[in-house]
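Structure ticket #2291
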Amino acid sequence: MELSDVLNGKEVKHEGGYFYSIERNIEELPIKRLTSAIKLGYPSINPSVLAQTFPVYSHQSMEDIPPRHLVEKALFIDIETRGLAHRHPIFLISLGQYSEEGMKITSVLARDYSEERTMLSYFLQLLHNSTSQITFNGHRFDLPHIGRRAQHQGLMINGYRYRELAEVLRGTHTDLIDHFNGKLQDIEKLRFGFARRGDIPGAAIPEIYRNYVYGLGDQDEVVQQIKSIVLHNMVDVASIGALFADRCRESAEENLLTRSLAA
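Resolution: structure written out below.
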């Protein structure tokens, strides 16, 4: 069994190398509660607030960026790695971008260790063309790991500015962060009533990828597990997008109430 048998993706050639890419609209994923939160909150996202909350990284000046472009070019990012240490390769990066239809998620996958450099190079190109980068706990893990792996692969990564969503929620929803110790799946369950079923445990992911790369175990089963990892990563990105959209909706409602009371 091949990846193409279970994931409707495509092989991408970039700078002389290859990686695998999978694209999904959130409507295609079994995440109705997260999709509803994104669609409900999207109209409330204020571009200037987004830029202030998540510092803009762009080769353009803010004055040159159309307001809605600030929102639609913001990247929601989550990664999967072979392990937690910086020496461990990144093999999967999922990127979400808002749209009027909800959110489009693209996952880029290194099918073996040799594809990591090409995958990272492609990701850095997307990063350069984005406005803001939003992760859940990226300050502590995702973006530093990307930076170290890019350096290891001889890739240039310009200074990026980022802020993690967990930090924002910690200042506004302390019950979500403190009670559940900042775990994304616990927060999405409490906030949206969304419970994942049949999800791959995070601790099992590095070993599954190792089995895939080295052809260990029942490869039909391993390929199905890789599919589950890709979907797990996509749902993480959708969840980050839903939490941010939900927070924007709440802020807009609070501001409207404040203005009404002051009138």
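Closing remark: The chain has one domain: 3-258.
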